[in-house]
Amino acid sequence: MNLKLWLSQMNELGINLSDNQLSQLEIFFKMLIEKNKVMNLTAITEKKEVYYKHFYDSASIIKIIDLNKLNNLCDFGSGAGFPGIILGILFPNLKITLVEAQLKRVNFLNEVIEKLNLKNIKAIHSRIEDYVIKHVEEYDVMTARAVAKLSILLEWSTKGIKIGGYFIAMKTDSIQELEESKNAINQLNLKVINKIDFILPEFDAKRSLICLKKIDKTNKKYPRKYSEIKRHPL
Questions:
Q1: Domain segments of the chain as ranges
Q2: Does domain 3-231 match CATH 1.10.10.10?
Q3: What is the C-alpha separation between 205 and 171, in angstroms, rounded?
């Protein structure tokens, strides 16, 4: 892997990494690969692919929203920590909550948080639609990466976003996702602010970022029960 090239591409995103941040990323990489030997965290294990398809890809959210100006963020369906752990390393100003439904993955996230001394991050074992009921309008921004269809993501999470706050979806096809989610966006009092499509550097991989703004309170009937959301998406 050409680290200098990767760093220059991160610089193009507006991210200049300190020696400590680089060290944290390297430690995280090694922990990810080691833990992946005993549990399913990622199918991507080659270093160059991890640094681009996980690390750079997570950081690319900065293309659509300035995280330096926000206070708190909730990343749900965090899995192995993407984008949440990466954002916590790169933006220590943010208070980040990782919400993950699988306890084994939460335990791994907590191991990473402790090892890297990430005092700005906490990992919670919960389904997001249960979590937001107790954390109404708490977050400046919520994000999810490759978790579910956009309409489902929005219903799961919107109640937890402040009015005037944002949901950032990290996808591979913004046009289709938005077309299929028109009703959900309307029902949940959201507005599409921006969408950006780009190609991941060094790989011919399409990426899409969708930014939605919460313009009013979420109706009390949302989110519905998990089984109902899955059977009948908005």
A1: 3-231
A2: no
A3: 11
